[in-house]
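Example for tutorial group B:
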């Protein structure tokens, strides 16, 4: 993904989400908080998977923009998937959103937080406290 490559040298957090996903909506403010806490060291990206394949991708923008405005996501780089959600799930090898990817400053993937990972590793759904803990670990010298 070009946005991740463009941020090499910084930790990158990518939140894959949808306005139709209650857990996504609940956890998304954590990305906003993370961006505010680490503006010099972490690039926070959001990838909305709201486009369901009906009409054009731009048709999903009003609801996405309204949500992003409501949560104050101005410090987050926001992307809208141009392919329908099911195709994106296949490309990302995801069963569902939310999913959060964290890349190290060298561009290698450090972790992917999703339902499967959380069930196996945490025994519970992941939260942004888990993502924040990983980012703090990656920021340590």
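The residue assignment follows.
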């Amino acid at each position: 993904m070009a946005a991740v490559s463009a941020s090499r040298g910084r930790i990158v957090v990518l939140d894959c989400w949808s306005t139709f996903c209650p857990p996504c909506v609940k956890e998304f403010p954590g990305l906003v908080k993370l961006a505010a806490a680490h503006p010099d060291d972490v690039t926070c990206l959001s990838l909305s998977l709201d486009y369901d394949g009906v009409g054009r991708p731009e048709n999903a923008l009003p609801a996405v923009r309204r949500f992003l405005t409501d949560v104050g996501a101005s410090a987050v780089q926001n992307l809208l998937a141009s392919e329908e959600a099911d195709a994106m799930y296949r490309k990302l090898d995801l069963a569902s959103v939310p999913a959060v990817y964290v890349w190290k400053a060298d561009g290698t993937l450090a972790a992917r937080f999703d339902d499967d990972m959380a069930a196996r590793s945490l025994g519970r759904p992941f939260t942004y406290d888990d993502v924040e803990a990983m980012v703090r670990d990656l920021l340590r010298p």
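Residues 102 and 111 are 5 Å apart (CA to CA). Compare this with the pattern of hydrophobic and polar residues in the output above.
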